[in-house]
Amino acid sequence: xxxxxxxxxxxxxxxxxxxxxxxxxxxxxxxxxxxxxxxxxxxxxxxxxxxxxxxxxxxxxxxxxxxxxxxxxxxxxxxxxxxxxxxxxxxxxxxxxxxxxxxxxxxxxxxxxxxxxxxxxxxxxxxxxxxxxxxxxxxxxxxxxxxxxxxxxxxxxxxxxxxxxxxxxxxxxxxxxxxxxxxxxxxxxxxxxxxxxxxxxxxxxxxxxxxxxxxxxxxxxxxxxxxxxxxxxxxxxxxxxxxxxxxxxxxxxxxxxxxxxxxxxxxxxxxxxxxxxxxxxxxxx
Length: 285
Ligand SMILES: NC(=O)c1ccc[n+]([C@@H]2O[C@H](COP(=O)([O-])OP(=O)(O)OC[C@H]3O[C@@H](n4cnc5c(N)ncnc54)[C@H](O)[C@@H]3O)[C@@H](O)[C@H]2O)c1
Known about the structure:
By secondary structure, this protein is an alpha/beta fold. It is built from 13 helices and 9 strands.
């Protein structure tokens, strides 16, 4: 797998095997600093060992375990991590590595960006949704009282290391969640990608590095032009107004996943656009 870099003012991404890129050299710059790795229960079990055994620099890292799932993307968990940071004497120049899906990168980015007015952090996304969307662009945050992403900051990670090898253990329904955000990127910014992935037959085809890169490029192109969501970046919210409402509504009863909610949201929002004559019936279909 060839490692490629996408480097701009607002995002530094490395895509490819994490073993072959600049991760190790970057870790060496923290030789005299503490390193904390935030994981959830699944990435602790499925992804952490690979990372630590591959990079001896991480053998001394402090591992902090977050509970899984959207219901835990909340302030109470952040408080516990900040307290743990304090006990572990984490300083401003130390490094936080967020190893996980969108919940870990959203919450880990928030935790790091607030503590001591901002620690250095990197994301190592392990879900498809995290790789094509959540870990990119610097938006991080947590939910409040069942409302999505009510608290947060826009703070860029120092780098995002995207290695699709982590997807080997990701359950099928989570691949579907990532697919929803890939379809969103295709619909808002890459017609050719839409044609390529709309009829995709298998998970294997979807998680090809070339396909992931195309989906990522739609997002990075937008963020480069509008990092703070003055206008253009709002395109990335396609499906999310209705999607977040659905997520919040079902939160207390039968929670639905973010990708599922966004997929339904895109259909609903397209329908509204069509009804308002902003989208032709043909485009809607
Ligand atoms: N910041 C942004 O720009 C942005 C964009 C889109 C979505 N998001 C947020 O991302 C979150 C959704 O992300 P998600 O779908 O990755 O959810 P998630 O982080 O909950 O991950 C989904 C599940 O997969 C597990 N998992 C992750 N990687 C794994 C692996 N390699 N092997 C086995 N299991 C693994 C997780 O433990 C979890 O159970 C939502 O909170 C959403 O709001 C943020």
